[in-house]
Design a protein that fits this description.
Helices cover 14% and strands 38% of the residues. It is mainly β. A 5-stranded antiparallel sheet has the order 3-2-1-4-5, with no helix packed on it. It has a 5-stranded antiparallel sheet with strand order 8-7-6-9-10, with no helix packed on it. Strands 11-12-13-15-14 form a 5-stranded mixed β-barrel. Helix 1 packs across helix 3. The chain is elongated, with a radius of gyration of 27 Å.
Length: 279
């Protein structure tokens, strides 16, 4: 086992030498220091200790018995504790905060934000975080069409939509045509599986099936009418982008909601827009 290759992982290593400032773990040929304050009481040479391997503030390989909030190969949501000239710094449960370089951010982050990240070792061997987790997500979930899922938004694309890590583990995407939620990176979402693709990736929607969603949309529209004094300057001829911006609905969903309210005789529609009918 080459210790440098175990960076970012938890490993059980043997005590090979005791010194005043701690113990060395590994082998006589390759060893790593576990500082004195971390050494369990009564430890002797030859005893095994489970440790996490990382680099200290002087970029030296070092062991700790503390458990970090993320290890190599995992995806975790961590909190931004500060930002600086080289990137953001995340709380990962160890004294030295974890660097999230600017080039590894899929969106600008600020202090207090929660972001989904993975660990990687940079060219100097230092552990860093990345928000670019697409290639690290799994595609073998048991989810089926119409299942409800929960996840974290980790990237936005003008061309492809909103990328979601379902259960912070599986690859999911809300296609651009379905993105009516004004979502941002870091948001927690509840969605419906609309398709399980051949490669196992999940297509998602924030909306219910059309016949269920129509009632919710109709009630939302009625509420907006009441807030606006009973009138709204929108018809079925209004621009689709304006409808999406104003109501978060596709034009077809808007027309279905208006149709439901017309059928229930709660509104009327004319050239200028829709108007609530007072009973």
């Amino acid at each position: 086992m080459k210790l440098q290759e175990e960076l970012g992982k938890k490993r059980t290593l043997m005590v090979v030498k005791k010194v005043d400032f701690g113990v060395y773990l590994g082998t006589k040929e390759e060893r790593v220091l576990l500082p004195k304050k971390q050494v369990p009481a009564g430890i002797e040479i030859g005893d095994p200790i489970e440790v996490f391997l990382y680099k200290d503030s002087d970029d030296r390989l070092i062991a700790t018995t503390e458990t970090p909030k993320i290890t190599m190969g995992e995806l975790k949501v961590l909190t931004v504790v500060d930002t600086g000239r080289i990137g953001a710094f995340l709380d990962w449960g160890l004294p030295k905060d974890l660097l999230l370089p600017f080039k590894e951010q899929t969106a600008k982050v600020s202090k207090g934000d929660e972001v989904l990240v993975a660990l990687y070792a940079d060219k100097t061997g230092r552990l860093c975080a990345t928000m670019k987790v697409y290639a690290r997500l799994e595609t073998d979930s048991d989810y089926q069409k119409d299942d409800e899922v929960h996840g974290t938004v980790y990237e936005l694309s003008d061309n492809f939509g909103v990328f979601v890590a379902v259960d912070n583990k599986y690859s999911g995407r809300i296609p651009k045509r379905e993105d009516f939620g004004n979502l941002k990176v870091g948001d927690k979402v509840t969605a419906r599986v609309t398709k399980v693709r051949e490669d196992g990736k999940l297509d998602l929607s924030m909306r219910k099936k059309a016949f269920l969603q129509m009632e919710d949309d109709a009630q939302m529209l009625l509420k907006r009418l009441k807030i606006s004094g009973g009138k709204l300057p929108f018809t079925d001829k209004s621009d689709a982008e304006l409808i999406k911006k104003e109501f978060g609905l596709s034009k077809n969903a808007f027309k279905r909601a208006v149709g439901r309210l017309l059928k229930e005789q709660k509104i009327r529609i004319n050239e200028k827009g829709i108007e609530i009918l007072e009973k």
